[in-house]
## 1
Amino acid sequence: MSDVKTIRVNDYDTAYVEAGKGEPLVLVHGSLCDYRYWTLQLPAFSAAFRTISVSLRHYYPERWDGQGDDFSITQHMRDVVALIDALGIAPAHVVGHSRGGHIAFRIAQNYPDRVRKLVLSEPGGALDPNLSPHAAEVNKRFEPGSFQTQAEARIRAGDIDGGLQIFVDAVSGPGAWERTPPLAKQFTRDNAITLLGQIHETREPFRREAAQAIKAPTLLVLGGLSPPMFGLIIDALAAAIPKAQCVTIADATHTMNVIKPAAYNEAVLNFLRA
């Protein structure tokens, strides 16, 4: 992977890696990840685009203590927008995964002039009832006592791997943590404390008017073996975002870009080049 760079945005030293030339492409990771999450995408994407993989505020390489009130979707959205502006790359293609997909959605909603094309890979978040009849089914996953609360309790008690297993298995399916390669497990451990911030953030649900406000051509990516919750979210967004299309990565779970990198890279590149 390319050398890590830092840039000061919103009074924070943001770490990122960059490779390639051409139209700018910004990669936004999800929970428990950092710029390294896109390691299997960077060579393919940078062959066609100026590709920038960012570590969000308080994620690795920072060693955060879990204190403060600046860990939120809104703060991370503003940080990515500030990064785009500081690098002078607007409008950029923006690709987000999971929680990073939610951040990418909010960038496209609130800063449409910064986004050329949008890729949402299983964006995570609650659904407003005006967007989907399945809102209650999805939203119960985010209620107190959910897997996130249980994972937080384990991590606070010092059982890092126990908390990560609860979280990863809930998101990607039973046994996912056990199947995670050792190096990827270490990446996740490096960011375990960020769950202490995430569990307390206020995340606005996806609403119909917000989805309809997205004008950028949008690709919604689903893993064929992912938990049903993500399919319900993608179906709801696909019906409301004006220029949306969907693709399913066969035989892949939530981390489809890691499980099936070649298929994921092809799907995203085909969309961005069209």
Note: The mean pLDDT is 95.
## 2
Amino acid sequence: MLKTNRRELLKRAAAASVAPLFLPMMQRVRAEAAGAINAMPKRFLFVVKSSGLTPAELVPKGLVAKLTKPGSEKGWPAELKPAESLLDVSLGDHELPDSLQPLSPFKNDLTLLQGLSGKMCRGGHSAWYGALGCYHTGSEGNPGRAASATVDGRLAKSLPAIFPHVGLTLGGKVLSGVKDSVVYPGISAIDTDRPLPYQASPQMAYKNLFGIAAEGAGDQAEQQLKSMLLDHMVSDIQQVQAQIAGADREKLDHYLEAFESLRDRRRQLSGLEATIRRHAPLVDDKYESNVETDRIEAHFDIATATLIAGLSNVVTIRADTLDITYRGLGIQKHVHGLGHAETVPGMTAIEARNRIRRFQVEQIARVAAKLKAVPEGDGTMLDNTLIVYLSDSAEKHHGSCVEWPFVLLGGLTGKFKKSAGGRYLQYPAYGNPGHRTIACLYNSLLYAVEQPHELFGRFDLNLDQDQQRGPLAELLV
């Protein structure tokens, strides 16, 4: 009897210590029950590709003749004609380009965004932190330092969750190949000089995110042991902390904060075990595969499950690097070579790049379909999520950053304007009146989560500052 009572007391104590950590979840449940749509959680999935996102390849088929022109060199992709004024066209009357066809079922939630510049960033193989942070950093082979938080890092702070940010990738830096470890690709940061880590191994990412719901007795024992160790670490540090002072005490404060954070996260995960188990992706051979397409698919599965299970509200997938070879798509040339218009057996470099883009878009469509199947509030999870597809090097392999296209899919709880059939939105070209920058898009995302910013990152000194401030009014409701 004494054992039983003690066990019950421990359960109550654990529940009491965990309860405050579930406040965001309880607020979500109450908001949904009350029909408070604006209080629904907002989520972001950033998908970052290498080697440029070719603007002309995003133009709807019926507008290609009007809006594009041949490439500047033989074998190079077509180019987008500079616009003199804002172009806002419904996608309902136009067929999507071939590489975006997988998004056809979601056209009502789709915005193709063109004409923004990002010349406050460096060009070349990668803008590094600049692509999501709007500042110049690094060199061809080195990301340099994070000058401030990138947009995914800032959103992660604004939308707290058990895992504030989840990063998934195939490799490390832009010129590296497949890795099996935690890496710092140099594209995301939570603050100045605080880069965000990415997990390159799907198997390890699964274990870190969903290991609490492991089925095997060995795995469960490992989870229990980790919880016990964390509890003991916190207790031991607290005891030592009480006996010292000065700089050593301050150092222990930081250690204690780190271990308490790990312990609290594990307690949160324990409380969500049933939810995590229900939404955890099915682990199959692709999680251990060395084929790039298998690993990318696994990462997208993990990202989807992470959002649905509520483990994080901000996920960034680095879809490939320049050293990746898409053998699973029959392409026997790495992304770097394709960017230099090197041909491969059976297809041109342009055809190979289109095949890669379509594959990545197919993964985005799979995520959208799963989110759309989950009811939430008066709609679905897709209505409260924004998927942002972009390149880390703007418009081409050696990006000039004068044009930086985006594919936006989702709703953000009604914060973004929609039109029947979706939108094709092209801003006036660089230097023209009405031109805007990628910083304005990121300001728009922050406005949508009620964190208004007038200035994001740093200014392009060759543009009027008013063209770089505030959100894109054409996007926000």
Note: The chain has 13 helices and 16 strands.
## 3
Amino acid sequence: MLKKLLIGLLFVLHTPIVFSQVFETSPPDHIKTITFKGNTPESQLPVIRLGDPLVLEFDALNAKEEDFYYIIQHCNYDWTPSILAKTEYLRGIDNQRISTYENSFNTYEIYSHYTLTIPNTLTRGFLKSGNYMIFIYDDFGELMFSRKFMIYEDIASVGAVVKRTRDMNTIQERQTVNFVINSGRINFNNPMETVKALVVQNNNLNTAIINLKPQYILGNELEYRYSEESAFWGGNEYLYFENRDVRVGNVGIQFIDLKDIYNSYLFTQEPRKGREYTYNPDINGNFKITVIDSRDTRTEADYTMVHFSLRMPELPPNEAVFIYGNYNSYAIDNSNRMIYNSDRGMYECSMKLKQGFYNYKYVIVDSEGYLNEGGISGNYWQTENNYKILVYYRDLGARFDRLVGFGETTSVNITN
């Protein structure tokens, strides 16, 4: 009980008096493979219907069978903590230990696999829609990582289509998302002020377009037919590899080597920018844990050291190359920064990853933090991308932002 009170106190101390935006926190080195999902088999951004279950899983690679605790915070549209009391948005209590865990079996890398499912005995579900953040603490009250998720009410319907941008300067490189919101059972009051739309490409909140206002209001329909305001860079199809069999080279893997653990050396890539677009089926930056000869991927999938290499000239000192994908929630940190090897004329990086199928791409980040996703891969209007549209509504006098609608589309059938 003392430990729980300590964690609760630390959470209060970490929460500023003046609400500011809450950001996801990357985990320490021994926390790996965070999969956070709803009623989908993929490890993607959780956008779930109010009342549906939520599952968070992760591995701890220190072989200590640590105790971890979770705290849940309701947030506004802009990811500042809402003013709602815990009892207003949560049925039951949080600040509880994650009691479901299993140890790895027959693996070179020893780890414990943790699973948190909501609803559970103590946290029985959510009462409000909107944005949420979950914080995971260790037994000493130290924050391990945090993740965002969204819960929506299935009230407003969203229809969307993807088109090429009308800007002739970037018509070969960008895609525009046009959509229509039907308010359904809600009569939107003053929608120019009370309704906010969010468009997310490939489950990546870092590049989401926010604060879109309706361009036209026709009865109970809100139309968004912008050209520039809702345009995304098309990017390129993700590169991928699969190492579900650690003993044999598989898709994207040149050769393997057994040291303390298995090492997987990927084929060296080269920049694709400036080349002709080539369709290459991917899962839009996602990843999936798979093992060829195992019944339980949670505890029988092993960890391998994956070696990435990119052959290209060295960039100026104010620019760096990173390995980008949903395997770490699109984070940019030292763990996925590539180092230039002047002797070999290429960028290199090694990461410990669980067996599976992974999408990734190489991106450039400058010293100001600007991310150039197409700087190495290129941008193409033909690229197949997934788009999610989320509709938030705060009625006049309301105390929080409801998430009242959710729509999804792809650029498979993109039109002019």
Note: Residues 1-18 have pLDDT under 50 and may be disordered.
